[in-house]
């Protein structure tokens, strides 16, 4: 049985992705959570929605992520996640980019080749840690920062509807999770997130936001590393939580990219709500030693909820002669639950 995500995706395309669609609200119209995306090992065949009812499993997995060695900072404990929560019951392995060029990331190579590589990578991560099921994902940049002001004057480009539709279709056809990433430029999250609601209302769709590009001091994107404050992150959390409540969805995952101290300020004020699971993602290329140092300082050193780690197929080997192996990344403290490839 296909999940609500895939059935609803078809409905959205038939209706030209208009806002007039209303989600099914009858309980018997919803497929059991987790049926749509096959997990990567026989051990992982349990529907993850059932796992969230088991507080002891939640605690065990949090301890697993810190190698059964809890500290003052990790793990970040909270209430047992709501039904259908992805974390910490799954590890997400995502391919990042846009669909029209490989220059923005691995997502831009031909579809058949890209999906084969993604499945292969997911299998490698599953082999490296058989305790946590692996879920493949497409992380599509829906709003890209630009070095020219463009018609809006905001130094950002919203991907055309047809490109967003392609990303949804790709996730539908290959039964992956979908992340939509936002680089605001001179715009704001308040302006850029609402137009994405019609996509984020899909149960398997999630959000990424990139503090590298918010040019709050009116510089051209990439001329200076940008920043988000906890207040910005909390806006995104509230926005996603509102969608979860409005459409009766399982919790959303919010990925926040980070690789400098100033990219994220007042981290301790980032709110925790049951509808949203926050991942701070170490997002920089370099040698293994450099990447591990940055992870320890900016990600593990300032705990929010969950952690992520980015790997670069070209930039990492160029800078450090090789790309880190899954076993090396999983040995980090805490072990990341979100892995991204570019």
Question: Can you tell me the CATH topology?
Answer: TIM Barrel
Which residues form runs of ≥5 with pLDDT under 50? Answer: 4-52
- When the domains are counted, the total is 1
Oligomer: single chain
Description of the molecule:
The protein has a single domain, classed as TIM Barrel. Helix 1 packs antiparallel against helix 5. The two termini are 32 Å apart. Helix 4 links the parallel strand 1 and strand 2. With 342 residues, the chain is of the alpha/beta class. It has an 8-stranded parallel barrel, surrounded by 4 helices.
Topology:
Layout: H1 4-14, H2 48-51, H3 55-65, E1 91-97, H4 111-128, E2 134-145, E3 156-158, H5 161-174, E4 177-182, H6 189-192, H7 197-200, E5 205-209, E6 228-229, H8 230-247, E7 252-258, E8 264-265, E9 276-282, H9 288-300, E10 306-311, H10 315-320, H11 326-330, E11 338-341
Parallel strand pairs: 1-2, 1-11, 2-4, 4-5, 5-7, 6-8, 7-9, 9-10, 10-11
Antiparallel strand pairs: 2-3
Short description:
The chain has helices spanning 4-14, 48-51, 55-65, 111-128, 161-174, 189-192, 197-200, 230-247, 288-300, 315-320, 326-330, and strands at 91-97, 134-145, 156-158, 177-182, 205-209, 228-229, 252-258, 264-265, 276-282, 306-311, 338-341. With 342 residues, it is an alpha/beta fold. The protein is globular and about 55 Å long.
